[in-house]
Please model this.
Amino acid sequence: MNDHKVDSKQSWQATLWICFAAQICSAVSYSTILPFLPLYLRHLPTSSRWSITTLSGMVYSAQAFTMMFASPFWGALADRYGRKPMVVRAMLGGGISILLMGFVATAGQLIFLSGVQGLFSGVISAVTALVVSKVPRDKTGYAMGIIQLGLWGGVALGPLLGGLVTDLFGFRMTFIATALLLCASGASIWIAIDESFTPAGRHASGKQSFFRNWARIVSYPGLAATFIIRFLVSVGRTALSPVLPLFVQALRPGNPHTAGYTGLVLGLSSAASTIAAVYLGRLGDRVGHHRVALYSGIVTALFFFPQTFIERPWQLLVLYTITGAGIGGLTPSLSALLARLSKPSDAGSVYGIDNSITAGGRAGAPLIAALVAAWFGMRWVFAATGLVFVAATVMVAVCLSAEAMGRREGEAAEVIELEIAAGEQE
Model:
């Protein structure tokens, strides 16, 4: 079923592990600064009367909002001109914009550069498309688990390093170090990955417009439901971004090391996500990714609600770590389902659309969380997040049940085979 024409001397395992290493570095880079942007904003002057929580939501949302529009185009270009250039573009674009963030003079400038970053970054979808285009179909769960290992491993390490560097050297040095690491990761991909790319079928002809191509992909059986679930998971993962550092500060009043403890909370949660992603990604290849997604969603939803009522920092540490493990099971399972329900030559477009959808979730979630915090208090953001994961879990149970997935994978296979035949005739 793999109609993708890539002649490369590298094995798919070599490509996977090179991308894994680059994913760790990029995840460390982003997670070094992103958790502490609300604290960074406190040191920047602003002429507006908006609260720090609202400004924090605007910073996170600006990046996600611009990425939501840019990602599908980058994904389509990856299917036409190669996946490796898109990975390098994402890493270099992210590195340059983050470097400039370290030298802003106002909160407005930080929000603007966050939007610029969203236009040119998008590392996760670019790396995923590159890996999926080379990995055998029956190994997609394993490969997605490895990529999530790189992602969550970097996310686990990044906040710890970011908190330490910020406490010792200040915010500016954290931005500089982050930018250098991202640019180095992009250079390593350009040098180490061997991609002799030839577009397949309709991508080679260039006759199909971006919009028709996206409509064709979304029409694959089962993809639309999976995209909606991915959106909900993205909302749930991001909602606490502008609130968590401020909530930790409220739990530990007067403690000067808020950044360090916030990094510990995020780091342990990400470590749990890392372990869960590797084990459950491989398990999904054997028992079905829809089953893994269902039980992971149940765990995540159940353990978000108690966080509304915690009184001690250690309680947040334990419960947030458990929800991190649940999200770690959801993410690779849904990514693997996207690969199984589409064809390899569409990997760039599929994961570009996916990145756009998840970016849409990231764009709206911080603003909604900021409003919930302003109206009801920061604690109730945890309850709202739990409700989002309840909705995602219900959708998994209804739309991605064993019976539905068996039928949809069969329908998707028929559609893909017909398109491959049509592409060969062209």
